[in-house]
Specification:
This protein has 14 helices and 10 strands. It is of the alpha+beta class. It has 2 domains: 172 residues, Creatine Kinase, Chain A, domain 2 (2-Layer Sandwich), CATH 3.30.590; 90 residues. Strand 6 and strand 7 form a beta hairpin. The longest helix has 29 residues. The radius of gyration is 21 Å and the shape is globular. 42% of the residues are buried. It comes from Niallia circulans.
Length: 355
């Protein structure tokens, strides 16, 4: 398969679409956790109970003629190999837990992959909607449409005082996790992030890396999300998150302007050195690739580099992950082989931009 065809097949809509404030906000994501009344949580139920949950969810949403998300497809974890599951994790369509620890799990995906419904992960149902740029309200509208469609045919586990009942106590209440993925190189370069992260956490939000809990902020990409679901309305959670994200956007813009005024030639040199590394390296480790891609995306946003798509960071941060590299190569590879293949893929991808 040619790289161009591979990229076309591998892209999700959020990778190549612009949204509001997309020079800083890469994606907005909503996730709703739900469980079925009278059925044990996934950690405790049998294979037969798991299959019954999948059938209920599939019947409620895939066969629903009024659902507005186009063709939906159910993928069973039992029918996917390790590499296929890893790619779904790298595309943010399923969680590592569903891929690694939920053999009786499944996922329902929309054709554009903005909608993902995980089944039998930590909870029976996890509805996820991803939108490009700062579109938290749009994402929750879509998630609530799916939630309403499911609730017509599935009885949720719900308590009048506690709200939606979930496997993990931190999700009880609305069951809502709202998150925004942000590219914040200006604040990192001006050494503001170490001060800002504790301040964000004091507001009841949490800052994580690109793949969520326990992951690094590779390429200066951070996920900001709510931490509290009990006793808060969906509206309050969304408004508080958006308020913080809006402030971060302004601070990032100010940091970039300050760098341009005080260290313009040094910043330009950094950008073009990273661009040169990406264009010419023969071996490229994950962290180095992420750092250089972040620099190049910053250079594009600030006008140093022209005629290269802004989506280059979104695409290559995903396409250069281990699962995708092996999928493109058509074989399993050791770390050194992946580093070589990563460099090849990046060079080929950048060449496509200039042809």
């Amino acid at each position: 398969m040619s790289l161009e065809k591979f990229i076309s097949k591998a892209r999700t809509s959020w990778m190549c679409s612009d949204g509001p404030d997309s020079e800083i906000v890469l994606t907005s994501r909503i996730r709703l956790a739900r469980n079925i009344e009278g059925v044990k949580f996934p950690l405790l139920f049998s294979k037969e109970e798991a299959e019954n949950v999948i059938q209920q969810v599939e019947g409620a949403i895939i066969n629903e003629s009024n659902q507005p998300f186009g063709q939906l497809e159910l993928l069973s974890m039992n029918n996917l190999n390790t590499l296929e599951k890893r790619v779904l994790v790298e595309k943010h369509l399923i969680s590592p837990q569903l891929a690694e620890q939920s053999p009786n799990g499944a996922v329902i995906l929309s054709e554009d992959e903005e909608v993902s419904i995980m089944i039998n992960e930590e909870d029976h149902i996890r509805i996820q909607c991803i939108k490009p740029g700062l579109q938290i309200e749009e994402a929750i509208k879509e998630a609530n449409i799916i939630d309403d469609l499911l609730e017509k045919k599935v009885n949720y586990a719900y308590h009048v005082e506690m709200g939606y009942l979930t496997s993990c106590p931190t999700n009880i209440g609305t069951g809502l996790r709202a998150s925004v993925m942000m590219h914040l190189p200006g604040m990192v370069l001006t050494q503001q992030m170490n001060r800002i992260i504790p301040a964000i956490q004091q507001l009841g939000l949490v800052v994580r890396g690109i793949y969520g809990e326990g992951s690094e902020a590779l390429g200066n990409i951070f996920q900001i999300s709510n931490q509290i679901t009990l006793g808060r309305s969906e509206k309050d959670i969304i408004e508080e998150l958006k308020s913080v994200v809006t402030q971060l956007i302004e601070q990032e813009k100010e940091a970039r302007n300050a760098l341009a005024q005080t260290s313009n030639i040094q910043l330009e040199d950094r950008v073009f050195r990273s661009y040169g590394i990406l264009c010419n390296s023969r071996i490229m480790e994950t962290k180095e690739a992420a750092k250089c891609l972040s620099d190049v995306r910053l250079g594009i946003d600030m006008g140093y580099i022209k005629n290269i798509s802004k989506s280059i960071l979104n695409e290559l941060m995903i396409l250069t992950q281990p699962g995708f590299l092996q999928l493109y190569a058509g074989e399993e590879m050791n770390p050194n082989e992946r580093d070589i293949r990563r460099a090849v893929l990046i060079r080929e991808r950048l060449k496509l931009e200039t042809e």
